[in-house]
Amino acid sequence: MHRNQAGSDWVSKAVIFSVATTGGGVALGVLFGAIGSLLPLHARIAIASVAGVVAVAIGALEVANKAVPVIQCNRETPQQWVHLGPLRWAARNGLALGCGATTRVGFWSWYSIPIAALLVGQIDIAAVICGVYGLVRGLCAWGFILADAVLSSRLRLTFDDLAVWVLTRRPTAKLLGAAHLIVVGSAVAIAAGL
Amino acid sequence: MVSTTQFRCGLLVASLAVGAAIGVAVLQSEVAAESILWLFLLSSAYVAILQQTLP
Fold first, then answer.
1. Alpha-carbon span A107 to A127, nearest angstrom
2. Cα–Cα distance measured from residue A180 to residue B15, given in angstroms and rounded to the nearest whole number
3. What is the number of H-type helices and E-type strands within chain A?
4. Is the ipTM of this structure higher than 0.90?
5. Cβ pairs bridging A and B (under 8 Å)
6. Is the pLDDT of residue A153 over 90?
């Protein structure tokens, strides 16, 4: 939200951004849910077992400080979208970030979301799983707005101070992401009967 | 004082233990599908929050 904040209504942009991120997430869920619904149960169980073990392995390597490069489109949303106007920018940016796949995902943990959508094998439930992801990404914008208001009035900190603080938490987030991968991977592998 | 290596080992073991406990609980649950669904939902929200640290 930061780079296009000047001179426009925050609330309208945040509402459109949040709706769009949720929509992007739902679209991702529908896609993977549809693919999963085409797969028989035994195939999905086999995928769950393999994905669970791979997730544990990657998570363990990352916890051991041996970073495994994330397979991703290593880019941000296009800068030229800023020129579309604040509301269209918010909508496009939201759709892209809510889907996640077309921009930098940053964490192997992200893959647990489309794989979960695939494994459930039901389009509606898959849409809910990915929709929650998109919704929370959108709600984080509101968190930043609220935090900015509180910090600027009470601690005289700017939005940039807050953004820098969040960005510098990345090593901790990487470690938490690796731990999350191990938890989800081992749970899924065991639940699938290995 | 706990060293970085000890912390990382502890985190690895704790994560495995929590994941295994969840997996066993799901297996033994009468509503296994719903249980794993909650894990996936919380997981999605968690990843979205972690991604706020991306540049």
1. 21
2. 7
3. 7, 0
4. yes
5. 135
6. no
